């Protein structure tokens, strides 16, 4: 089985466990796409909390308790993402591969290597080369 099949199988197993978990508690009626997207946003914010006042925000600055908190917040984010994808019938693995392909077109290596600015900060000159964008609203 290839990696994509493993990932799909793992996500399907998680999805099935989450379906059962919600069904046993009669929570499915609360799991609308809007509610799941809202919960996902909250959990993503909670994921940021352990990093909030760190100097560099690197893993080595986290203690064991903070690392455990990050681990569980990541699981919460994945949980709500899988449930939202389930409600909207979106294949997360396929969507991720599509998005990586779109990002490769938006951020060609020859133009952005080593540069973390957003795609709209780059302009292509008449000769196909990269120029720095002039958008004053873009901080990058």
Provide a concise account of the structure shown:
The protein has 140 residues and is mainly alpha-helical. Helices cover 59% and strands 4% of the residues. The chain has 5 helices and 2 strands, in the order H-H-H-H-H-E-E.
Describe the structure.
The chain has 140 residues and is mainly alpha-helical. The protein is built from five helices and two strands. It has a two-stranded antiparallel ribbon. Helix 1 crosses helix 3. The longest helix is centred in the middle third of the chain and has 25 residues. It is globular. The C terminus is likely disordered.
Structure classification: mainly alpha
Q: Total number of helical segments?
A: 5
Rg of Cα set: 20 Å
Report the order of strands and helices.
HHHHHEE
- DSSP summary, beta strand count: 2
- Widest β-sheet, arrangement of strands: 1-2
Q: Which stretches are low in confidence, meaning pLDDT under 50 for 5 or more residues running?
A: 125-130, 132-140
Indicate the overall shape.
Answer: globular
- Please give the alpha-carbon distance between the first and last residues: 42 Å
Strand content: under 5%
> What percentage of residues falls in helices of 4 or more residues?
55-70%
The biggest sheet, with number of strands, parallel, antiparallel or mixed sense and barrel status, is:
2 strands, antiparallel
Q: Could you report the average pLDDT, rounded to the nearest whole number?
A: 87
